[in-house]
Amino acid sequence: MSILDKETIEGRFGPLWSGRTEITVAGRARTMADIKRSFDLTGDDILAIDLHELPGGTFAFRHYDGDVRCVVVFVFDAGFDILEEHRAHIGEWLGDLYHETGALAFDPDALLHILRKKLREGSE
Question: What is the DSSP letter of 57?
């Protein structure tokens, strides 16, 4: 994983949290919680970020996997078959701040809170 992975994720799917919280898959409205369950992502360290409807009847689910401290994107079809997977370490977004967080690096909720705050401050 490298900065190139982060650039691929943002280039293709936009900035984190720029997507939607609900999409229509196979004629049914699906929330991020629905999509998370469809992929059997039941751990407390899996935090949904956003959803995207893509061309060709495909979709993207972007989430944070606290176990490996990565932003992950699943590109999937209407049958919930994963067609692509992209990953980038959270440190690519946080930079030096990631190393300064200490034990918070192991708390997914805290780490995403720090990331959202950093991204908001960067856009002001």
Answer: G
Classify burial at 99, counting beta carbons within 10 Å of its beta carbon; exposed 0-12, middle 13-18, buried 19 or more: exposed
pTM higher than 0.70, yes or no? yes
Residue 67, C-beta contacts closer than 8 angstroms, at least 6 positions apart: 43, 45
Round to the nearest angstrom and report the end-to-end CA distance of the chain.
28
Q: How far apart are CA 52 and CA 68, in angstroms?
A: 23
Q: What is the dihedral of CA 80, 61, 31, 110, to 10 degrees?
A: 140
Tokens, residue 42: 């039941």
**pLDDT given at position 107:** 84
Residue 27 backbone phi and psi in degrees, to 5:
80, 5
d(CA 81, CA 90): 25
Question: pLDDT tier at 123 (50, 70, 90 boundaries)?
Answer: low
Mode of pairing for the β-strands spanning 46-54 and 22-25:
unpaired
